[in-house]
Request: fold
Amino acid sequence: MQTSKPIRILIVDDHFMVRMGLSASLNVEDDMQVVVEAGSGESAVEAYRKQAPLLVIMDLRLPGMSGTDATTAILREFPDARILMLSTHSGEEEVYRALQAGARGYVLKSVVREELLRAIREVWQGRPYIDPAVAPLLAKREGHRSLTTRELEVLRLVAKGLGNKEVAAILNIAEVTVKLHVSHVFDKLDVKDRTEAATAALQRGIITLD
Reply:
């Protein structure tokens, strides 16, 4: 595939070898050119400002600012930015949040090269592209209720093994309020106890323990 102007690409990943491998793979394509790389969300935003790429390949989990937050920051300044998420993580909540933030595509790092190239070209043309392995998760996510910010805070602490009294002290709220939040979390995640809640939340990408 050839075009008069190549797709100028920014690669964002905190692993140098991943960035190097992607750059080498994409730069052999006549219609693609990796013009800049970044190892963090913050540096990705700055790199976009300086280089104005046509497309961003963004990792999901980055040190400091996450890929989702970096996507939000870039689109806030540059609404026409085209961002493709490339991640090892397939938790339904993480995928959902990335797309809600404005990413136009989501593919897993296990994807074959030909499919990645297709995803890049689709997103560059303004069309959404979702990895076939991820699509069923999004459909499943539509049937789930979102947790509130406070419920997420409680869930993260519960997942670390803290009791209601400890959670209450950390969040500076009443223990009875913690119990209420935990009850709501159980109901929304359709689980029966704290262990099931933590397991389900981690598997679905609702929380991480990084």
Notes: The chain has a mean pLDDT of 89. The radius of gyration is 19 Å. The beta strands are 7-12, 32-38, 55-58, 83-87, 105-108, 129-130.
